[in-house]
Amino acid sequence: MRAALHLAARYVLRHRLQSALLAGALGLVFALPLCLRVLISHAQQELRARAAATPQIVGTRGSALDLMMTALYFKRENLLPLPVGVLTELRQNHSAAAIPLHVRFQAQGAPIVGTELEYFTFRGLHLSAGKQLSRLGDCVLGATVAKQRGLQPGGHVFSSPEQAFDMAGVYPLKMRITGILAPSGTPDDEAVFVDLKTAWLIEGRSHGHDDLQKDQSVVLKKEEDGNIVGNAAVRMFNEVTDKNIASFHFHGDVSTYPISAIIVLPQDAKAEALLAGRYARSKEQQLIRPRDEMEALLTQLVRLEGFAASALLLTATAALLVTALVFALSFRLRAREFATLEDVGVSRVSLITVKVLEVLIIGIVAVVIGLVLLQISSLTAPHLLRWAL
């Protein structure tokens, strides 16, 4: 037995490249279904947890999936804006707490989320450095955003223009970083948080500029109602500071300002049912339960997993047949080698043992490669899910 093992091992080592390729192909083929199961299992667990932690979401009537992805994962989906007046009406109901979300702009590739301080309490987010939002133009960074870009409290980050060549668009806002959130392992790690007014400032619904009362050289005309219109020489501020913060003001009816969604936290099951009934009759807004929408999405995902697993099973079967053919051809090419061994006294049983051991060695190496791939998929599953979302 020891001699047969020695011969088998020597052959595998002598043809190490061929053996490694064969073992690697086998390990990859047999690990793929298990890696797929690990990735989908992790995705299901994380998606369900995020959805279950969010009781209800209100948004404009349309795609429920788009609304859920916007509110939970800060995706810029094709949603019609929701007037902030809806938020006021919800709060007047007193049967549920409501947290607004404004998701439209980005800063260095990270979504800018306009919200209120209650959002941090709701998600259990805590600061690892700095302090919370305290004035217009402040922002708090998720842990991943701060780490990847090397940003710290006291620094600044610019909002990104929606279009690179939008000369008539709003100015990028230079935001003051006041704090960094502790890692939470959620999409909150990859977002830049501002308050709603700062989000509207980025949108151009508010601005600050030179005092037209003091500098008459930049005045274009004075209207009858006392409104002063400045000319093109008026200096617009792209950063909020202690000196110029008083010059920032909003135009128009604030109750019509847009938000993307509202996270609703009903007091009890009765309030939840009443709210669902109220918005079921609305033609302009909709209320969704993320848990239900996510289960529907995951049901489709499981069906796709079954299809993919069937395809991978067929691939594995084909790979197994090809591997058997490779071994058969290899043994056939080595017929003279085995005949020589038989001539010097090696028994047929020993020769069969050598062949079996060669197959076993390749198989064991393939299993090890498969386990390594499985471990890698387990470790990278959270990052792959973030990248996919």
TrEMBL record:
The keyword Cell inner membrane does not apply. It is a multi-pass membrane protein. It comes from the Bacteria. The chain crosses the membrane at residues 20-40, 307-331, 351-374. It is found in: Cell membrane. One of its GO terms (cellular component) is plasma membrane. Residues 311-378 form the ABC3 transporter permease C-terminal domain. It holds the Pfam family MacB_PCD. The keyword Cell membrane applies. Keywords: Cell membrane, Membrane, Transmembrane, Transmembrane helix. Residues 89-204 form the MacB-like periplasmic core domain. This is Putative ABC transport system permease protein. It comes from Prosthecobacter vanneervenii.
